[in-house]
Design a protein that fits this description.
With about 140 residues, this protein is an alpha+beta fold. About 15% of the residues lie in helices and about 25% in strands. The chain is built from 2 helices and 7 strands; from the N terminus they run ββαββαβββ. The strands form 2 sheets. A 5-stranded mixed beta sheet has the order 4-3-7-5-6, with helices on one face.
Length: about 140
């Protein structure tokens, strides 16, 4: 009808959090839940373009997170949903013998500074896509 034989496909989210979708244009996805994006696309397709649209949204790939400092294998790692700082350190091969195992530093992609995270007995701290974790040296 609109020269769009199928709307099914994989769409990339830009660094500004937008998705370009056929027929309806740009949809904001950044800082929105999957349900929010699904409702937005369904609402914009309904009536004007598609009768009874059925929209399904899923995230195929997240931005990686980074871990630096006193871990055995510092570098870039793929993000997994629900990951904590402790799990990220384990993924990087654990601490080196010089590591401060009580505190790490976390910088969110959305902030300019880093803040300390307790690694002993506190609540688990979630890692988000794009975060940078730094494990410092201990001082005897």
């Amino acid at each position: 009808m609109f020269n769009e034989p199928t709307l099914t496909g994989e769409y990339n989210v830009t660094s500004s959090g937008a998705v370009a979708f056929p027929l309806i244009g740009v949809v904001q996805a950044g800082d929105h839940t999957i349900d929010d994006v699904t409702r937005e696309i369904t609402g914009r397709l309904a009536g004007a373009y598609v009768n009874d649209p059925r929209v399904s949204v899923e995230v195929l790939n997240y931005r990686p997170f980074y871990i630096l400092g006193e871990v055995n294998k510092p570098g870039e790692y793929p993000y997994a949903s629900g990951m904590t700082v402790d799990q990220a350190i384990a993924k990087a091969g654990g601490f080196t013998y010089r590591a401060n195992e009580k505190t790490a530093f976390l910088r969110r992609q959305t902030s300019s500074g880093e803040h300390s995270v307790s690694l002993r007995g506190g609540r688990p701290v979630a890692v988000l896509p794009g975060d940078t974790i730094r494990v410092g040296e201990r001082y005897f």
